[in-house]
Amino acid sequence: MKTKNRADRSGVVVPVSAPSKGGAAAGAGKAGVAARGPPRFELEAGRKWVVENQTGNRGIVIEETDPKQTVYIYNCTDCTIQAGPPTCCFVFRFDSASV
Length: 99
Prior knowledge:
Elements: H1 21-28, E1 40-44, E2 48-52, E3 60-62, E4 70-74, E5 81-83, E6 89-93
Parallel strand pairs: 2-4, 3-5, 4-6
Antiparallel strand pairs: 1-2
């Protein structure tokens, strides 16, 4: 017979031991710093425009666009990016420190 309050179920939750400090603390210090690579502005595999690590570039123009293409914009600071009219999908990633 099933009952709501059975004697063999005490409801006590056993805490799990804390993780070792070596694994979790090593990656936690670098989480706030965004790694900057070389500036990139290219079309990948004919479907994905990538604009990365641009600083102060106000003349980025994507002219040859297609409705099936996607524009990904990462780590751009003080930039102006223009894309042609048939582009339908844009993906932006902002760092929490810059927003």
